Amino acid sequence: EEPVLLAELKPGRPQRYDWKSSCETWSVAFSPDGAWFAWSQGHCVVKLIPWPLGEAELCKTSERKSWGGKAENRSRGAAKEKTLECGQIVWGLAFSSWPAAEDGDTDPACAVGLPCMVLATGLNDGQIKVWEVQTGHLLFSLLGHQDVVRDLSFAPNGSPILVSASRDKTLRVWDLSRDVLLPCGDTFLLSPGRQVQVLSGHVQWVYCCSISPDCSMLCSAAGEKSALLWSMRSYTLIRRLEGHQSSVVSCDFSPDSALLVTASYDACVIMWDPYTGEQLRTLRHVPLHSTLDSSSEIHTSSLRSVCFSPEGLYLATVADDRLLRIWALELRSPVAFAPMTNGLCCMYFPHGGFIATGTRDGHVQFWTAPRVLSSLKHLCRKALRTFLTTYQVLALPIPRKLKEFLTYRTF
Known about the structure:
Organism: Oreocharis arfaki (tit berrypecker)
Number of helices: 4
CATH class: Mainly Beta
Shape: globular
CATH architecture: 7 Propeller
Distance between the termini: 22 Å
Number of strands: 28
Keywords: Repeat, Ubl conjugation pathway, WD repeat
Radius of gyration: 21 Å
Largest sheet: 4 strands, antiparallel
GO biological process, one term: protein polyubiquitination
Protein name: WSB2 protein
WD repeats: 119-141, 142-177, 199-240, 241-282, 296-330
């Protein structure tokens, strides 16, 4: 079943032709609970949209295919669409839900007893601005990077740990739960957010960073032929993942942390076992008009983005050949294609069913994605691999074929 375009978001202000306008949508993000959507629509602006839209409601918009910049308010309760004026070109976005406040000593924007949803924005001048989603208020800024903050990743376990990737060739780890004293003349100011670690190892711009769902590993991709895998416990380099022939620009972990995929300008997606560093599979695009069989694996265009589906059975890729591709985990050829122009990024809705893609003209498009009922085998594998490493699985007193299945080596 080919993806169907459900709706398209467009910037709500006229195009500007000075370099500062930068109309590209470099990043899109859904909040972990699926209640909010954010996109860097260009012109130094981020749009925050409340997201009560299930598939049925989203399909109601498919006839017109477009929401303008002054789209009607689609609210959930008191939630309203917001425009965040960031003051700089926005490159990276990441949501996180902070733990509930118990004694009211957190930011007053976060109601006592309720989780505080925040959005971090990575900017052109090296700043990271953190916003409270419900109100649209700027909470604080994080300073430290010396160049564009290209990507951001919060720890998936809900802890206020943020990793940022920058063109200054470093990654920085921030703990947003801790305050730090900053000198201001003869006094000190109490500022939220503390830089925990600076990770150095790349020699080119860092394009992408991704924290594994079990929060044990961090993968980073830069303008190099290898991706780097770091420990989130010791903040040390675990290994270099070497196998691409050109710059690696995107990476993502499977929901159970057992797989890692990297996408490169060499137009290949490599699937890795992050625990052993073994290459499990290489996926190569073929031209849409070519014969798609298991022996034909010739990519023709640079990849821009790759992401796992929420249940871990599909991948989505965006490439410069103006196609969105959807891959089934067990197959070597794409199971679906969709034509799109100048795609830069892609992201699955947290509950599955559709994909958001961003383009160079500042637009966001929403596509249907295959819905699947996971087999009991896959659910068991996913549950086990959430807390067992590859080495622990291989040490189990179970049949070899079962070990191969649990370590994704039965492709």
